[in-house]
Amino acid sequence: MKKLLYLPLFLISQVIMAQSLSKSDLEAMTSDHWQHGLDLLREIVSIPNDAAYKEQITENLIWCKDQFGGRGFSLTELETGGLPLLLAERKAENGEKTILFYFHVDGQAVEKSKWNQEDPFIPVLKEKTSSGEWTEIQMERANTEYDPDWRIFARSSSDDKGPIAMFLTAWDALSENNLSPDFNVKIILDFEEEQGSPLLPEAVKTHRDKLMADMMIIMDGPRHISNEPTLTFGARGISTMTLTTYGPVVPQHSGHFGNYAPNPAFMLAQLLASMKNENGRVSIPGFYDGIEISDEERAVLAAVPDDEDGIRDRLQISRIDDVGSYYQESIQYPSLNIRGMNSAWVGKESRTIVPSTAVAEIDVRLVKESDPNRLFKLIEDHIQNQGFTILDHDPIKEERMKFEKVIKLEKNIAYQAFRTPIDSEAGAWLRGMMERAFGKAPVQIRTSGGSVPISPFVDALDIPAVTVPTVNADNNQHSPNENIRLGNYRDGIRTALSILTQSYK
Amino acid sequence: MKKLLYLPLFLISQVIMAQSLSKSDLEAMTSDHWQHGLDLLREIVSIPNDAAYKEQITENLIWCKDQFGGRGFSLTELETGGLPLLLAERKAENGEKTILFYFHVDGQAVEKSKWNQEDPFIPVLKEKTSSGEWTEIQMERANTEYDPDWRIFARSSSDDKGPIAMFLTAWDALSENNLSPDFNVKIILDFEEEQGSPLLPEAVKTHRDKLMADMMIIMDGPRHISNEPTLTFGARGISTMTLTTYGPVVPQHSGHFGNYAPNPAFMLAQLLASMKNENGRVSIPGFYDGIEISDEERAVLAAVPDDEDGIRDRLQISRIDDVGSYYQESIQYPSLNIRGMNSAWVGKESRTIVPSTAVAEIDVRLVKESDPNRLFKLIEDHIQNQGFTILDHDPIKEERMKFEKVIKLEKNIAYQAFRTPIDSEAGAWLRGMMERAFGKAPVQIRTSGGSVPISPFVDALDIPAVTVPTVNADNNQHSPNENIRLGNYRDGIRTALSILTQSYK
Fold it and tell me: Domain Peptidase M20 dimerisation spans what residues (chains A, B) (predicted)?
């Protein structure tokens, strides 16, 4: 850890408290510790972190223990039955409240050959040429030059090691100036988020007391696509269904049995068609029940600087489903999506048959108001109302012969949604923190459309939880050539500084 | 060719004319020539006949020329631009009318490893054991013993070399007794039926005069499943459509864009659902127009000894599509069948996306009354009435952005149906022939459900055409372990004898 060689200006007056640092103070402090921040980032992304390889995770665990332990955090490994969770704690003197920070250390698997660099775990610095290509430049240039649009390319640079390095940098900046938060800090480090954190919800139940806090801040995920400072108050949950319909027990010649043997693809098409109106709105009664959006919340949704025309242009769609009238509104509701559908063969492999089965894969994205069990019940009732007998297995002959229409329904609730009220105390605190850091109101996302494995954790802990995303949305998360924009990394350090210097009593 | 060593009883009286041969005469004559028939069958199936290999077809062509030329037929090779058609002709003294016989010489490709014998082109004799397995027995046993349920296994034993051997055997039986038909005989031998006879319709136009006849008898295909003597008066035609619907230009994350980006699988499901009612009856107006079945024809349909319960039991279906109320009635109408359907992935490969496209493969089986162009027009009008803009190509961005729902429609008319009226002169003649041969009325199939490549030939020639099938329905046609039941082969010889000895003036 590099020692500061000079005292920042704002410390000339010893009476200044951490909690009164202004935007320019935070900027100056970030600037002073920029090189240290870059060092930390390059160091942490150099440790391979595919959770499929236990030895890689072990190395990351050791690094985290060194880093947080070295900064005076007390460490506890929480047993999960699988890879451990690492809990790091630092109590504030006279700290009354506690904030729990969430980061994950593992990264998506890499397919080296698809990366435009030798090794996804050796970070490289790149700039965009006038032709729009990313070209490597000497890493050393970052020691003396700064361009916010340069990027560091490495696995987990954005998801989610970048935020860890931001946090550590901010912590060091404060420490070296003898400043510290006025609240207790707990940090939970997840080592298998990219595996869906399968053991996390159960671990919360086991270790609930140790994890308990007044607020949780999730340091993961990208900012709004506008790249403006962002707070995200929730995420949709996800559940899935697989529907299988049945025709003749084996495929039949379509000449001999076309318009005689019932066709399972038609049955499935008719069932699916009955679930939505032609404008894409779910027509199953009750599906959208319980969702009320206040005028204040609508104002928040409408304030998100989405480029609706831009989205439609990028997706090449002339209209949107009749659920919301704009993007943010749309994702406040549960979805019913056909993610896959199949019966027999298409294209060159197609055969003149009456297929024996047809399958639809459905995903139902959940919002806070939509209990997945209630939605499943509505869907099942609807299926039965269409004349189907629902089974949980492939029908045996007796069932095929007995019932006019049978369907196999397999269902899975992956995880529920979470959402913290925007007008909560936590929301107000975070807005204040962001306004201090950036001099303007953040983009506030009431819920993100996608689902995150942190949801069950939030749910089980049942405390206000808000995501403070920092990285650029075009970071190639989960893909080859993941990167972090230097401007985002720098803003992220400032964000962490602002969080740690915001009074919470 | 084995010479007869004795004169059959019925020739003791020299005044007996061929045309007055009774059932028992035909039986005796068949019996007398049984060994010769077996020799011919074993010889013809020993010549490999996959039309994908020109040299194999050449060998078959040479064999056919030898056989028919050696029996006094005049031979003409009709150029098709591909594999030739062989026309063999024998005029009758004072023959007034002409019957054109159709056979095909080529066979389906073989996958040797899937056959339960060393070589599909070395015939073997088998009997069914009490456990239901087919076990090889010494071929020599067929020289002294006869069991109608024994079978000869070889490619093309049923489809369609068996019928050629039956015909040649019958011809020889007559010749050796100085008998001959009182009508002119033309025989057309097709060498690429299993390839769909792509050049046949055009060849008919070119060689129409040479092929012209008063009636055509198609010696191909299996008897009714009851294995009763059968006449088949037509076959459904077939046309196909591929429908593709479009969502976002590339698949989108279903969390971010589920219930925002229109889902192409739902669009497709809704379109398909609109084409049929829930009982499987096409609901597109006009689809079944023009089909009228007289009371007499209904009586014929009802007389077919189908085991409706048996079919449903075998297919494991509890109901049938609401087109006909029983099998024979069902296939008198055109079908609209989804033979394949796909959007994105199902099963283990499924992903949480909004797919970008969905595809349905449709086949429309045609009957005589249904002009495929008229049906296509009805379907297209229906699709447009559902709000789709029909394209013949994948939409470009401008089309995606301009139209609410676009669909790509690709269509192909493979071939039209054919059907000869049951109450035609040809029908009466063939019924008489069958009754004389078997002492009972044949099963009469008004139309078969499947489609046969002979249809365009029949259509182009525009003469009454009836199929006289002889082989067992469970012959494993097109599959490994193709076979012919000895009883069917024997009945087939008798059928050929009856045809050739039925007066046609």
Answer: 234-386
